[in-house]
C-alpha cells in the first residue's frame, strides 16, 4: 500500500492520525491474543494514543473486562467506538 496515496494524505490532514501508525497497529492486531489482559491493555493504550483520546484507568478496566469476557472478534473499529463513547 502506497502511503503517498492522496486518499491517505487526506485522512491524515483531516484526522491528524498518521496512517502508517494505523496500518502498523492493524497488522499487530491480526495475531493478538485478546484473552490476554496485558495484550489488551497494550492495544487500548495504542489506540488511545493514535486517536489522541486519553483513557482513564476506570474506562481502561471496563474495556479490558468487556474484551476479555466478550470473546467476539475484536477490531480497531470496536476499540475506537469504546474509547470515543463518553
Helix/strand layout:
Elements: H1 6-15, H2 19-29, H3 37-51, H4 57-70, H5 76-84
Describe the protein in words.
With 86 residues, the chain is mainly α. The protein has one domain.
What percent strand? under 5%
Overall number of strands = 0
**Number of H/I helices:** 5
Name the poorly predicted regions: none
Domain count: the total is 1
Structural class: mainly alpha
Q: In sequence order, what are the helices and strands, one letter per element?
A: HHHHH
Q: Roughly what percent helix?
A: 55-70%
Query: Nearest-angstrom radius of gyration?
Result: 14 Å
Mean pLDDT: 81
Spatial shape: globular
What does the main sheet amount to?
none
Gap between N and C termini? 34 Å
Nutshell version of this structure?
This protein is mainly α. Helices cover 69% and strands 0% of the residues. The longest helix has 15 residues.
Features:
single chain, about 90 residues, mainly alpha, 5 helices, about 70% helix
Amino acid at each position: 500500500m502506497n502511503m503517498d496515496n492522496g486518499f491517505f494524505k487526506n485522512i491524515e490532514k483531516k484526522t491528524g492520525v498518521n496512517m502508517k501508525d494505523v496500518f502498523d497497529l492493524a497488522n499487530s492486531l491480526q495475531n493478538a491474543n485478546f484473552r490476554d489482559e496485558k495484550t489488551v491493555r497494550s492495544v487500548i493504550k495504542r489506540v488511545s494514543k493514535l486517536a489522541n483520546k486519553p483513557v482513564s484507568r476506570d474506562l481502561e478496566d471496563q474495556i479490558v473486562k468487556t474484551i476479555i469476557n466478550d470473546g467476539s472478534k475484536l477490531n480497531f473499529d470496536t476499540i475506537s467506538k469504546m474509547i470515543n463513547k463518553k
